[in-house]
From TrEMBL:
SUPFAM superfamilies: Thioredoxin-like. InterPro entries: Glutaredoxin (IPR002109), Thioredoxin-like_sf (IPR036249). It comes from Brevibacterium yomogidense. Residues 4-61 form the Glutaredoxin domain. Signal peptide: none annotated. This is Glutaredoxin-like protein NrdH, required for reduction of Ribonucleotide reductase class Ib. It comes from the Bacteria.
Length: 61
């Protein structure tokens, strides 16, 4: 089974829209708060992302 993680920031309209889309498609997901997890933030930046949300499904993003 695919693990889906949505890395987010608090009170983000884009993040909330991503959650709704995943829920409408009945896709289970976990979240990671980039404002609270500096290691995750560095990982996301290392992948070249500068904005949230970032959705990672197994090895795809």
């Amino acid at each position: 089974m695919t693990t889906v993680i949505v890395y987010n920031k608090p009170a983000s309209v884009q993040c909330n829209a991503t959650y709704r889309t995943l829920e409408n498609k009945v896709i289970a997901y976990e979240t990671g708060d980039l404002s609270q997890d500096p290691e995750a933030l560095e990982q996301i930046r290392a992948m070249g992302y500068m904005q949230a949300p970032v959705v990672i499904a197994d090895e795809d993003h």
